Give the backbone structure.
Amino acid sequence: MKDLGKMRERFQRDGKAVRLGNLASELRRLGGWIQSGRDDDVIIELMRKIAWLMEWMQDGATREIADMQREICRWRRIWPLDQARSLLAFRTRNMSNQLLEQSGLLSA
């Protein structure tokens, strides 16, 4: 993974709505990669990145995001789990939609 300090600094420069949108985008990407059968190491690395982004939400941190972070971390610890690919892809799409709704970017 890239330098975490630089990644954190860049992520936190944006406002809350943009951070939520970026996080939603990463979750959507994760679901797509899982469905398309991307390499498991790459999927695990993206899960790790998403967990860090959730950690760095600052004023955008909510109980729901903390729950999502714990779920992503649990999935990362047991991945790969072929029989759960469609379930995790579904969950990440739901998380993404929830964050986009919270961001207000869709109604702007």
Observations:
- Residues 40-100 form one domain.
- The chain has a mean pLDDT of 94.
